[in-house]
Specification:
The protein is α+β, with helices and mostly antiparallel strands. The protein folds into two domains: 114 residues, no CATH class; 135 residues, no CATH class. The protein contains two helices and 20 strands. The strands form eight sheets. Strands 7, 8, 11, 15 and 18 form a five-stranded antiparallel β-sheet that branches. A three-stranded antiparallel β-sheet has the order 12-13-14, with no helix packed on it. Strands 1-4 form a two-stranded antiparallel ribbon. Strand 7 and strand 8 form a beta hairpin. The radius of gyration is 27 Å and the shape is elongated.
Length: 262
């Protein structure tokens, strides 16, 4: 059987992975805090018919050898944590991180997760939560009579209450960084969870030790660039078509062989 059939099939599967990744990027072009993925590939093993350096005579050696590749395989889908554009919302509970860092949240079962989505709300108790009701950690409770909420670039949260002329500090937002954020596990819902590959979380005050600062009244948009994604979609489609053509050509060659008469 011709090896080209199997080699081309690995190419089609690889391009399907790239197109699936691109489709997910495009689908999340308007998702707050979304980070795009990039499919990465490596060539498979080689069928060696003659090693480079093999003697071809008493005084000469093969300069290149003969090695036929057996296809391609996906090696990673790498999350790109470049910073997205900031969009001004004027919502006092919308906050964005300019630079490194994640917001830490707590799931109902106590699991700590991380997010770049800073579109926060207040729950029935005045606690700052995300759209699914998960608490921002450290937990901050806003008094029910607060007339305004201010969040400094260092994450300091203050409120003004009736009858007071001075703002009162009610909490401190901290951010978390990882040595390898691409190693975080994507859970969906704009949430990530720590893994052995990401390294241990490092928490701190925004603006200190390399952590990004906080911007109140802004959200960080997706870092997906449609022009790049559409270009990748076209190249992926063309590569998929080319690999399918190889299978068709190999099939026609086999048919020709089968039709040979003695």
């Amino acid at each position: 059987m011709m090896q080209s059939l199997y080699t081309a099939s690995t190419g089609m599967l690889g391009m399907q992975t790239q197109i699936d990744t691109t489709a997910n990027n495009i689908a999340n072009v308007n998702t707050i805090g979304f980070k795009k993925g990039r499919a990465e590939f490596a060539d498979l093993m080689y069928h060696v018919m003659e090693y480079a350096g093999t003697s071809t005579s008493d005084t000469t050696k093969s300069p290149t050898g003969i090695e036929v590749g057996l296809g391609v395989r996906p090696t990673a889908i790498n999350k790109i944590f470049s910073e997205g554009s900031l969009k001004q919302t004027d919502n006092q509970l919308d906050i964005a991180i300019t630079g490194r860092g994640f917001f830490k949240l707590e799931l109902p079962d106590g699991t700590e997760v991380y997010s770049k989505n800073g579109a926060f709300k207040l729950d029935q108790d005045g606690s700052i939560v995300n759209s699914d009701g998960y608490y921002l950690i450290p937990q901050i409770v806003v008094p029910p009579d607060a007339t305004s909420i201010s969040i400094g670039t260092d994450g300091t949260v203050t409120v003004v209450q009736p009858g007071q002329t001075q703002a009162t500090q009610i909490g401190q937002i901290q951010t978390t960084s990882f040595i390898n954020p691409a190693g975080l596990h994507s859970m969906g819902d704009n949430l990530y969870i720590e893994t052995d590959a990401s390294g241990q979380p490092v928490e701190g005050i925004p603006g200190v030790d390399g952590l990004g600062t906080i911007r109140q009244g802004f959200v960080e948009l997706s870092n997906v660039e449609l022009v790049v994604e559409l270009t990748d979609l076209i190249t992926g489609q063309r590569a998929y078509d080319a690999n399918s053509k190889i299978i068709t050509t190999s099939d026609e060659m086999l048919q020709t062989v089968n039709n040979l008469k003695r």
